[in-house]
Amino acid sequence: MADKPILEVKKLKKHFHLGGGRVLKAVDDLSFAINRGETFGLVGESGCGKSTAGRTIIRLYEATSGEVLFNGENIHKLNAKNKLQYNRNMQMVFQDPYASLDPRMTIGKIIAEGIDIHKLYTGKQRSDRVSQLLNDVGLNEEHAGRFPHEFSGGQRQRVGIARALAIEPQFIIADEPISALDVSVQAQVVNLFKKLQKDRGLTYLFIAHDLAMVRHISDRIGVMYLGKMVEVTTSEKLNAKPLHPYTQSLLSAIPIPDPDVQKKRVRVILQGEVPSPLNPPSGCPFRTRCPHAMKECAESMPPFKEVETGHYTACHLY
Ligand SMILES: Nc1ncnc2c1ncn2[C@@H]1O[C@H](COP(=O)(O)OP(=O)(O)OP(=O)(O)O)[C@@H](O)[C@H]1O
Fold first, then answer.
1. What residue ranges do the domains of the chain occupy?
2. Which residue's CA lies nearest to atom 9 of ligand 1?
3. What is the pLDDT of residue 112?
4. Nearest atom of ligand 1 to the alpha carbon of 44
5. Which of 84, 263, 285, 287 has the fewest Cβ atoms within 10 Å of its own Cβ atom?
6. What Gene3D superfamilies does the annotation carry (predicted)?
7. Is residue 34 a contact partner of residue 229, using CB atoms and an 8 Å limit?
8. Confidence of residue 1 (pLDDT cuts 50, 70, 90)
9. Highest mean pLDDT pick, 147-161, 246-260, 268-282
10. Would the CA dihedral through 29, 205, 148, 134 be positive or negative?
11. How far out from the chain centre does Cα 229 lie?
């Protein structure tokens, strides 16, 4: 029998109350699961709720409703001791490696923060651990006494990764971890993520707006639009046969290196902008930009259902 998923997200909602009765449904009814050892890519345009989803899963934000099960346990029902253990199992790597590293702290202190909070090592064991982590991410132990501003963007992101690894988590949420980096170093950081996953059996939730990149590193992909999950399947199925018109448009925008194939491809160009999440369209939120919109799309939100084995989508076409 297959292993139970390491993470199950069930009907997760995170609504921000902005005053004056205005409610911004940043994450609305999100359901998906991540298997142990896989990379799950979460994609969608800016503002669709990817970061909010990641932050709610790791409990930087409290959920408005819904469930997050980690190793089968509902994380919203954990007592203080188990919550600390949960925090140990799940860590986050942020987009901007400069903003997320305290400029007044040395790299060694930054990396050891989690070790100190969880009281894992002290003295020589602690400094040995920091040296090891620096080596593991392609830096070296002399870097421990330096400050974040002395490093390049790629090196700072390596520090961010070492910090996340310090307490040996099983699961890492990487929120746009390469988008702030030069193109030339993006591949190096992606390769580091891959190597660490292989060596340590890590599971990743990899958040990014760039489907072209995500599909190369993810086993499975979830596509979000205006706070909702619109499609989930394996990278191969998503590439070969995307079901949701929004996914089709994202894929059709990715250039193909082969000019003959590129010529034959039908480009799906979306009309208009993403609607405001404060005032989303009725029914399916994508209908105002969808080339296949029908009458029923304005009337009801299509259920998120398994259309083919392991291939889920929320669209009235299916
Ligand atoms: N703390 C907050 N308070 C109010 N609204 C918020 C807050 N955080 C995010 N939002 C809003 O929630 C929606 C989703 O934002 P989120 O950052 O999760 O999207 P995203 O897909 O990660 O986009 P990006 O890649 O630009 O960060 C946006 O409309 C955003 O303005």
1. 7-313
2. 52
3. 95
4. 21
5. 263
6. P-loop containing nucleotide triphosphate hydrolases
7. no
8. very low
9. 147-161
10. positive
11. 13
* Atom 6 of ligand 1: nearest residue by CA position: 16
pLDDT at 255: 75
Mean pLDDT to the nearest integer, 142-163: 94
Q: How far apart are CA 220 and CA 198, in angstroms?
A: 17
Residue-wise pLDDT for 63-88, tens only, equals 999 999 999 988 878 777 777 777 78
What is the topology classification, in CATH, of domain 7-313? Rossmann fold (3.40.50)
Task: Give the model confidence (pLDDT) of 218-248 as tens digits.
Answer: 999 999 999 999 999 999 999 999 999 999 9
Pocket of ligand 1 from Cβ distances under 6 Å: 16, 24, 26, 44, 46-52, 209, 277
Could you give the angle at the alpha carbon of 34 between the alpha carbons of 33 and 36, nearest 5°? 140
Section 161-172 average pLDDT: 95
Q: Which of 12, 18, 50 to mutate to test the pocket of ligand 1 (most atoms within 8 A of CB)?
A: 50
Pocket test for ligand 1, best of 16, 18, 30, 52 (most atoms within 8 A of CB): 52
